[in-house]
Amino acid sequence: MCRTVDLRQAVLAKNTMAAGVLRTELTARGTTVVNLLSSPGSGKTALLERELPLARERGIEVAALTADLATENDATRLARSGAPVKQVLTDGLCHLEADMLAGHLHDWLPDATRLLFVENVGNLVCPASYDLGESLRVVLASVTEGEDKPLKYPTAFGLAQLVIVTKSDLAGPAAFDEAAFRAHVERVNPGVEVVLTSVRTGEGAGVLVDRALAAADGDAVHTPVMARAGA
Amino acid sequence: MHEMSVALSVVDQVERAARPGGAHGVRRVVVEIGELAGVVPDALAFCFELACAGTLLEGAELATRFLPGRASCAPCGRTWDTGMPPDMLCAVCRGGAGELLSGRELRITEVHWSASPTTPDPTPVPQPEES
Lengths: 231, 131
Known about the structure:
heterodimer, A: alpha/beta, Rossmann fold, 8 helices, 32% helix, 20% strand, globular, B: alpha+beta, hypothetical protein PF0899 fold, three-stranded mixed sheet, zinc ion binding (chain A), CobW/HypB/UreG_nucleotide-bd (chain A), Hyd_mat_HypB (chain A)
């Protein structure tokens, strides 16, 4: 006998449930997670190198978890801020998943942590599909990557709650067309905030901490159209 | 490429449903993939075959159904195909889409298996909303 069963199960349901549990647990203890996504080399680590000390100067308890396929270089850089930092080596896996993150936080994340920044694996494809229990998802792109990046990686940019343009000091030499970039972001994710930053000139200093704190305080965070899917 | 993770999730979920259902072997699995789900059907098919090895799904066929991205405009009620890359702005009023009607799906819809005639159908597991 052959049987056909209507399963109607979301393939990523297990991750979505794990992310929901993690978000609830962390929120209950006063910790807000910020998930940072970008291509390799966009400047996630450089931005955190600037933002972590700024947060600490303001008396905000921050921590960072950074994921890479190999090397502990990013954790070494971020640890100079004095904040608790953890390096996760994914052994080739191209993204983090919620249960992996939960496992790494166990026995490490200090109780008093207000903001936990998770630097995802440098990749604009796979991490976009995995909720990590974050309250704010940030997608970064540097001015050297081209104005059409949001169109080439529409799922990542389409699900962003904040878009940060990095290396704005190079906008001139790179002939970065800011208006075109903004129009492309608006096309895939109407209404999302786009902020320019440069760790060299100081443009946009503190913006990541400000937006993360707003999310932590329960202020309304942008809900992308793609996340309003009825599917 | 996260299609291997996706394939392993499909195999895991189908096995969980099929074993209590008395399945001897799963023959076919149907997965809906939305245009904006970020999953490449060919890559998933390749990974699915590998992920099925040594499981109840060994040799099972994977059928994928494509669902186009469709959005609706809250102010004017217009609906449209978002295309790829998607256009979430209404062509009429240029307001942002109010809702994505389809396109983000990534779900198992049907599973076909061989089973003894006396075993009951499995109870569908309640699922959270996809984010």
